[in-house]
């Protein structure tokens, strides 16, 4: 008797999340293959065989195109990994087309850059003072230089350190030798974090990659070798947690997901040492956002729930508001309308409350413009394009002009929302505005990936003059 076949619901869900029919997936597959330098295609029958579970491991060149098209490794598309004896062909195909491996679907970013989950930088360090410093040093040394393909942690492998952060931190004591430092050093580090954050706001994460890694190594050396009071020590660990959180965002904005994940986990350790529940919850919020962006809403929701539970009583209304907005996108991805609608409403209610009290300095970016952008992307993921356009357009109008990178991101999402409403000319006009910001001002590989996805979605309208104009202007910008 034949074993019962297990359907590939994951692949079907990924296709439907992009509002693709099986025929449309075939079109996108062929376009992506051409960008990779491969002249291959598939039929709707092939897609049905994948989704029905008749074929559990695609052939090597199909695997290459599928991973590029969806921006996810094979196992995250519901397929089985190939037998090691047959991986040589896949490796050769990947090597032959690696120079063209640049496309990613809208809303999804490349999972790349470190090694395997078992060797993720800093993951195995203990949750102690020495472990926090060692994790920071290990990540800071490895993340900027290691660019090998990587599958990010998911499920229990990633939630284990999250649960460790939620435990009560051990008492902090000053236990290092060396020269004594005081609050002036702490202020200098805090000013550095603020400066890097502002540069990132204006120029994008790619502009500060090397600088922030160097800064973290410097702070880790201070923590390890200097002498200081317990109060100063707590402030130093807090500064290290802040830098690690910013580093995570900077590498995330640069499509360096493994490095971002490593930095955020290191930041959780530093926040754990000082008992800073608000900072830890904030870090978990970004880990949730990353999981949602790479198509893993289950982990994204788990992180938000851990953030809200672990930060209860310590987190401020503004930070609570952004956590609620981030959770909305994850619920939208699983089509839980009641949950994402409630989360969006809760986010705006909490933001109103934030005007009544003091917020942490690092929450400066959490504004009505921010929440409208997050809400717009939530509705975009849910397929409610009218609400997506409404929120994204409003957020763009409210956004401070100094947040140039965010303007480019808002415009890109708005272009996609217009296109999915079949307002092609308006979509192209908005997309060109985003391109113009990326030409001279913004270095954000993440936004470039999103614009590539937008360009792929324009394919059915390629004959229209506005689409030809966008494609011509995008030719130079999107090759970066």
Number of strands: 2
Quote the beta fraction.
under 5%
Helix count, DSSP H or I runs of 4 or more residues: 21
Helix content: 55-70%
Q: Number of domains in the coordinates? A: 3
Parts with pLDDT < 50 across at least 5 consecutive residues: 84-118, 147-151, 155-177
Order of helices and strands: HHHHHEHEHHHHHHHHHHHHHHH
Overall shape: it is globular
Strand order of the largest sheet: 1-2
Secondary structure category: mainly alpha
The radius of gyration over CA amounts to 22 Å
Give the N-to-C terminal Cα separation. 53 Å
Give the averaged pLDDT, no decimals. 78
Characterize the biggest β-sheet: 2 strands, antiparallel
Oligomeric state of the chains present here: single chain
Structural summary, described in words:
This protein has 480 residues and is mostly helical. The chain has three domains: 9-100, 434 Repressor (Amino-terminal Domain), CATH 1.10.260; 106-275, no CATH class; 401-480. It has 21 helices and two strands. It has helices at residues 9-17, 22-35, 44-52, 60-70, 87-97, 129-142, 155-166, 183-203, 209-225, 230-253, 257-274, 277-293, 297-310, 317-333, 337-354, 368-382, 385-398, 404-420, 424-440, 445-457, 465-477, and strands spanning 112-113, 148-149. It has a two-stranded antiparallel ribbon with strand order 1-2. Helix 2 (22-35) crosses helix 4 and helix 12 (277-293) runs parallel beside helix 14 (317-333). The chain is globular, with a radius of gyration of 22 Å. The N and C termini lie far apart (53 Å). The model is unreliable at 84-118, 147-151 and 155-177 (pLDDT under 50).
């Amino acid at each position: 008797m034949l074993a019962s076949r297990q359907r590939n619901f994951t692949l079907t869900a990924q296709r439907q999340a992009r509002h693709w029919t099986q025929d449309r997936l075939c079109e996108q597959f062929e376009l992506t293959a051409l960008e990779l330098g491969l002249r291959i295609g598939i039929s709707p029958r092939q897609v049905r065989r994948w989704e029905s579970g008749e074929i559990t491991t695609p052939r090597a060149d199909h695997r290459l195109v599928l991973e590029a098209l969806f921006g996810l490794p094979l196992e995250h598309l519901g397929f089985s990994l190939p037998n090691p004896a047959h991986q040589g062909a896949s490796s050769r195909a990947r090597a032959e087309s690696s120079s063209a491996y640049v496309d990613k679907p809208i809303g999804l970013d490349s999972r790349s850059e470190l090694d395997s989950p078992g060797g993720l930088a800093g993951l195995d360090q203990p949750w102690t003072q020495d472990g926090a410093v060692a994790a920071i040093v290990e990540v800071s040394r490895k993340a900027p230089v290691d660019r090998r393909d990587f599958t990010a942690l998911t499920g229990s492998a990633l939630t284990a350190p999250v649960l460790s952060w939620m435990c009560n931190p051990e008492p902090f004591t000053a236990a290092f030798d060396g020269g004594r430092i005081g609050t002036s050093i702490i202020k200098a580090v805090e000013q550095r974090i603020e400066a890097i954050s502002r540069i990132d706001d204006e120029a994008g994460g790619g502009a500060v990659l090397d600088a922030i890694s160097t800064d973290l190594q410097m702070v880790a050396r201070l923590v390890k070798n200097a002498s200081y009071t317990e109060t100063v020590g707590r402030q130093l660990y807090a500064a290290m947690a802040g830098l690690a959180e910013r580093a995570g965002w900077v590498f995330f904005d640069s499509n360096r997901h493994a490095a971002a994940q490593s930095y955020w986990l290191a930041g959780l350790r530093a926040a754990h040492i000082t008992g800073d529940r608000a900072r830890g919850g904030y870090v978990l919020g970004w880990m949730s956002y990353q999981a949602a962006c790479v198509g893993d809403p289950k982990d994204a929701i788990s992180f938000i729930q851990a953030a809200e539970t672990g930060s209860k009583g310590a987190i401020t209304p503004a930070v609570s508001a952004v956590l609620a907005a981030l959770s909305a996108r994850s619920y939208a991805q699983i089509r839980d309308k009641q949950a994402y609608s409630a989360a969006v409403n809760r986010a705006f209610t909490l933001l109103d409350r934030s005007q009544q009290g003091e917020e942490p300095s690092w929450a400066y970016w959490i504004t009505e413009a921010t929440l409208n952008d997050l809400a717009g992307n939530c509705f975009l993921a849910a397929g409610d394009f009218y609400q997506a356009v409404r929120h994204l357009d409003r957020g763009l109008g409210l956004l401070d002009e100094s947040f140039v990178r965010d303007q480019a991101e808002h415009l890109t999402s708005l272009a996609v929302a217009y296109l999915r409403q079949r307002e092609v000319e308006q979509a192209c006009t908005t997309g060109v505005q985003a391109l113009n910001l990326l030409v001279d001002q913004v270095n954000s590989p993440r936004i470039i990936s999103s614009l590539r996805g937008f360009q792929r979605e324009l394919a059915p309208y390629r004959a229209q003059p506005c689409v030809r104009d966008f494609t011509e202007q995008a030719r130079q910008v999107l090759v970066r």
